[in-house]
Amino acid sequence: MSNVFNFSAGPAMMPKAVLEQAQRELLNWQEQQTSVMEVSHRGKLFMELITQADKDFRELYHIPDNYKILFLQGGARGQFAALPMNLANNKGKALYLTSGHWSSTAAKEARLFTDVEEVNILKDGKLETGNLDFSDVAEQYDYVHYCPNETISGVEIFDVPNVGDAVLVADMSSNILSREIDVNQFGVIYAGAQKNLGPAGITIVIVREDLIGNARKETPSIWNYEVQSKSDSMINTPPTFAWYLCSLVFKHLLATGGVTAMAKRNREKAALLYAYLDQSDFYQNNVAKNNRSLMNVTFTTGDDELNAKFVAEATAAGLQALKGHKVLGGMRASIYNAMPIEGVQALIAFMQKFEAENK
Questions:
Q1: Entry pTM
Q2: Which of 36, 64, 70, 272 could form a disulfide with 29 if both were Cys (CB 3.0 to 4.6 A apart)?
């Protein structure tokens, strides 16, 4: 099945080299004659693993020492609630910059815990020039939240909102480690692992230390950043196998050029696919060029029956999970870090064939 390419939006494909290493070590990790899933999470070997994972992730993303890295559970949805419980404790309100389904969903959840003001930063599906300067109002809020990549619509925001000295929070679930960022611009970055970091079941939170320790008294301990930080993200038994796989992904990325090299590969993959879409009068991508996602490429034929036929035939040809999200329809090719350029080339070849047969 080496000719199968998985375009799933998440859980997404993982690097083959990582899966092969995990397969080799599955029954005998660290010469223990047992699996990493079966050892104590507080044992010496696993504690060494998490210490090295923290170090490797810091190196990959150039994370300063005044930030804590938490490996939590509950996915990004869990953080939708954890954020206001930990941060909205002074001014009693937060600003949410919405650009699609997930940023709007995060705002809806936050309203259960604090007052939320919501600003749609897209106009006719396009990010307007200068539309990300909130420095004159941001300090009225405990934090400002946005989602730089919307997986459903295939919209990515490449500029970082200007919030002055206010706290900026980013949901990077679908584009973390895909390109370089300056972590110092953010108070909190969070991401579900199941797209670029590892398998579903673990969530990374990068939080500036001065923001820890201010949670509301009613905040459950599992969502309390201070409690989790002091407990090495182990207030309860963590998802050890997922943590282990993330540690292998970090090492793999470091060995293959880091985030700089990965960003170059991602730009090349996306450019190839968008170039084909732009020259085709059979398929359409409806995202403004400046906001086209490098991770999730959406497209359609404009005909629901033809779209369904495309997905069915693509699946039979070994191109999996190309059906678009139910909110939007059409097709979606998720080309996260682990997708090789050969997968994009195979998709384009199929698209050409399908177009020729159905035009």
A1: 0.96
A2: 36
